[in-house]
Specification:
ten-stranded mixed β-sheet; two-stranded antiparallel ribbon; 16% strand
Length: 396
Amino acid sequence: MIASVFKYATITLAALAGLYAVLLGLLTTSKFQAHVVYLHKIQMTWFKDLDVPETFGFLRNQVTPFEIRNSDGVILYAWHILPIELYRKHESSLVEEPVGFVQDITSRVGFKLLRDDPDARLILHMHGAAGTVGSGYRVPNYWALAAGQPGKIHVLTFDYRGFGRSSGAPTENGIILDALKIVDWAINVAGVPPSRILVFGQSMGTAVSLAISEHLASQSPPIVFAGTILVAPFVDVATLVSTYRVAGTVPILSPLAHFPAAFNYLQRFIRDKWSSKDRIAQYVQANEANGERYRLTLIHAEDDYDIPWHHTPRVFWYAVNASMPSGISYENLEEKKFESRKDLGAAGTVMEWRTENGVIREEILRTGLHDVIMGYPVITMAVMRIFQEADSSFTC
């Protein structure tokens, strides 16, 4: 009996090892790797029509679905979301418009309310891997983003290439191109200056947010937004996969992290690096060198089982280190945190680093998981804090 159990256990383990070996082999191919990294074919909105945002809980024509064509021909699917108080004031004219997808958003009442209001603020929303603009906790996230000033804060969210109804296939360079096109639309079509734009990213979207923020801050003349909020950021893909578990349970490369030689070998096949640690450092350095005002907020929950929360202190350190001519070690920064961070009890901790030009803020919550946190008041507060620091006349 014991021998039989041992035999079947051995066969099972061998089969699992074989399947894992096949998985590792597939991960070295660019196409399969893209599906694992971006999960773009997992939509999570199969039974709802994105062109009917009302089925996601919005009011009639509170959301305008439309498309933006990128320079390389990729078509990006997007939502323009009106803040609730602004919607209330113009409800009658909004309700009278036809519902659904629009070919020319510039003809719509909602667009004109954004373009023609010199006090309007716009949040460019960069979502995480998998799903669409309407998936999971993203809809509550939009509500939380605008809640602090429900008469002024608009949200523009979109699906990267290969996601949802956007065309193409995802790559790091392609997704960055998509996000830059969204910025171009916001500034040059909607007419919103960078000083009234906030970039929000969650999970994979934090890497996208940092990529475009660094790119625009480093150009001449620089373009710097009112601020950037990063929820559940990660150091880079190589570091992430060493700990990452799909849905918090299924490991990808974490078992190999115990075998440095094998892990380092497989890292050579990682196509899209998404090096947030380098980009946040370059972003801070560029703004410090140019004397540009910048505001960064990093938020993470300790019970995040998808991206471990300890990524955020590392990313925070890369930013702070880049803000100082002589730098600061990770250990020394941790000592300074111990001395000066605010302990909010069950609400977590807050550490703020200020320079003559910038504010870098780290908020570690006790709870919030990976996605639920997006609908929390901490998101609303982060938005209002940045907009008010950028313009003291902007109040709720």
